[in-house]
Each structure stands twice: as C-alpha cells, then as structure tokens.
Amino acid sequence: MHFFTEKLFGIELFLNMACKMTLFRHMTIKYWSVRSLAFTVLGIASGVVLSCATGAYSPLPTTVLAGLAGFLLFQGQALHMFFGAQRGYFEYMLLMKGVESRTGRLIRQSLGIRFYIRSQIVGLKEEHLSAVIKEGKNRLKWTDLMCLLIKASSIARRNGEKGKEISILKTALSLYPYSVVVNNMLADCYESQGMVEEAMECCRLGKMDRLVITPALKEILNRKMDQLRRQTKIV
Predict the structure, then answer these.
(1) What digits encode the pLDDT tens for the residues 179-212?
(2) Which residues cross the membrane (predicted)?
(3) In the chain, is it the N or the C terminus that has fewer CB atoms within a 10 Å radius of its CB?
C-alpha cells in the first residue's frame, strides 16, 4: 500500500511541475492541454451527431476525423495567440483565469457544489461572496482572500458601484501592496475617475510586484503610464 502511495505522490508532483511549465514562454501546458482536450471532445461529439444524422454505416471514421479536426482547430488558435496576441495581455489574461479558477474552488469548498453550479447559471451575488470572505478570513491564505476580493470588485464593477469597487481593491492591496493585478485594476478605476496621479502611483507599485511580474506585464504598466503622462502633458 505504501508503494502505491509513493507512486501516486510522484505522479501528482510531476503533474504539478508540468502545469507550471510553459509553451512558447507564455502559454502554460495546463491551459494548452485542457483546451486541446475540450476541443477534441467537442469534435468527437460533433462527429457522433453527424454520423447519426447521416446514417453512416461506420461512424468511427467520421468521429475520429471530427475529433482530429477539433484538436487541430485549437492548435491553430494557439498559434494565433502566440503570433498575433500581445504577450503581456495574454499573460494578464492567464493570471485572471487563475484568479477565477481559485475563486471557484473556494466557493465550492465553502458553499457546496450545488450552490456553485447555481451561481454559474444565475450569477454570483455580492452577499454570497461576502459570506465566503467572512467565513474564511481567519483560515484562508492571503492569496485566496485576495482572489475573493478581486472577484468581489468585479461584481461591484458589474453593478456600476465604482466607489465600492475602489474600496474593495484597496482592501486587497492591504494584503499585498504590490499586486500587479490589483494595482492594474485600481489604476483603471482611478483613470476613469480622472484621478491620474493616483493611477500613476498604482502603476509604479504594480511594477514592484516580485511574485508574478514579468517583462511583458511590466511593459503593460509602462504603456499605461505613458498614456497617463500624455493625458496630463507630463514629460
């Protein structure tokens, strides 16, 4: 039994390492593999439906070809992301996907899978997220709390509550003042309110993030600062 436990631990460790590796220096293997599998399954399902609809004698060739087409379709999309998308924007989107994924896990753990599924259909409400934050304030890691606060700020933005959004983001910054994600979101809020100096300060703090900052993400903040300087004619 101990032998199998060690083997399982080794496999889990390998998968965790593989998920942190990157393709093309900015597309994670986890992102690529999950999307490739999803497109392949979608292609296979389409092949089965097409075979049934046309009354094919042997559905296997159609199904295999459709699955292969689905797989290749995403490879084309992946190459487009690599060659066409701005690297910094893509990395930022991956960070936001990570925040969304972790938030979903915390909600499932705190409120149950049934509530999580319902929230995906009807939309997550602020009071439910506040309950998760309040319940886990003393036991969750600060990174988990920050993810929940980022999600709460997104809900406030969706509801048009700009003041509440800024307040929530400031609370998130009290956990880690240099978060590139939170500072970028707060800079957008300040810029929309005409508070250019405050937005510039957020960009400066975001560039000091030592946890997830990359040259491409730093370039996003540099471009935003240049844009803010042009607005105020600061040289």
Answers:
(1) 888 998 899 899 888 888 999 999 999 989 888 7
(2) 37-57, 63-83
(3) C
What is the residue extent of each domain of the chain? 1-85
Is the pTM for the entire model greater than 0.70?
no
